[in-house]
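Thread title: Can someone regenerate the structure for this chain?

I was given the following input by a collaborator and told the matching structure tokens would be attached. They weren't. Posting the sequence so someone can regenerate them.
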Amino acid sequence: MKIETTPLHELYIFKPTVYQDQRGYFFESYNQQFFREKGIYTNFVQDNQSVSTYGVIRGLHFQKVAPQAKLVRCIVGKVWDVVIDLRKNSPTYKKSFGIELSEDNMNMMLIPKGFAHGFVTLSDVSVFSYQCDEIYLPNQDGGIIYNDPEFQIEWNIDHKNVILSEKDSVLPRWSEIEKFVTF
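Best answer:
Regenerated them for you:
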């Protein structure tokens, strides 16, 4: 497995070593020893998986108390994955980053605590996996509307094709909640 840095502080991309033959492929999607050798001591306690259709945006989400670090990947299909650094003491505070995660490139992203996270499905369907280091607490769920002009995120999809859940369609702008979020 290879690890790559990104422009955002402590945000990493993992590129697995893939073994392919006539049967298909195999790769190691997580190895605690490898992570620790790289100085990453995340202990995952919950795995989540979602299925989405073309145009579905999930996010931008974060957990206000007990923020979650996440290891994310797209198992089937293709997504554009986006994060925003919300850690006020970070050198990359309020900066965003996007990357394609797909079944073809098999890349994974390790998102530190204190980031907002979301993705849009760019294929007919996507299956998306999240490993989290904290249990989900519904009463601590937070989020930012996907098209907040402060961040000018490029979602790589025509906005007329965007599909949002009822919950995600009423998320606030960052300017409305910034003073209440303390990472």
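The two ends are 30 Å apart (CA to CA).
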